[in-house]
Every structure is written in C-alpha cells, then in structure tokens.
Design brief:
Strand content: 15-25%
Number of helices: 4
Shape: globular
Structural class: alpha+beta
Distance between the termini: 33 Å
Helix content: 40-55%
Order of helices and strands: HEHEHEEH
Number of strands: 4
Strand order of the largest sheet: 2-1-3-4
Length: 91
C-alpha cells in the first residue's frame, strides 16, 4: 500500500524523473539545478504541501531525507536515492 502513491505519481508525471522535496533543502535545489543543467524534465512534490505524503514515501523507500528521486525514463519506476546518488547516477 505504501508504494501505491509513488506509482500513481510516477504514472501521472509525464517526465524523466519524479522528485520529492522539502522546504529549505539545499540538496533539493541542487537536484533541480542538476536536472535543468542536463535538460531533464522532472515532476516535484514538496512534502510541506502534502500532509502525510512524507510518511508514505519513507514507508515505500526507507529513504528518510530529501530529496527522494526516481528515474522514470525506462517506463519503470526506479528509485535512485537522494542528490548524491542522483548526481553520481547521471555522470
């Protein structure tokens, strides 16, 4: 059940990546810059705007910090991790 919200967001994203963020998050800002620099599209959901969403995403991924990033380019929903993992992944 916990992964259903991620799958639904991914299905409706229509972008290369799905990203969950939080307010005042430097790594979230860095991820946005990285995607823009590489001309990759992304759909962002800010946990501060969606009460209860953080708990669902943490339950689905085990990842407790932001950003939480998924690659959607292959048609599959692939969990990458946070900014550091995404930065290394896109090299």
């Amino acid at each position: 059940m916990s992964g259903e919200v991620v799958l639904e967001h991914a299905k409706n994203a229509g972008t290369d990546f799905l990203m969950y963020t939080g307010n005042f998050c430097g790594y979230c800002t860095a991820a946005i810059r990285l995607f823009n620099h590489k001309n990759l599209s992304f759909k962002e959901y800010n946990f501060d705007d969606y009460p209860g969403l953080r708990q669902q995403v943490v339950a689905a991924t085990g990842h407790r910090t932001v950003p939480v990033i998924f690659d959607l380019r292959s048609g599959e929903v692939m969990f990458i991790g946070g900014f550091d993992e995404t930065n290394a992944y896109l090299r």
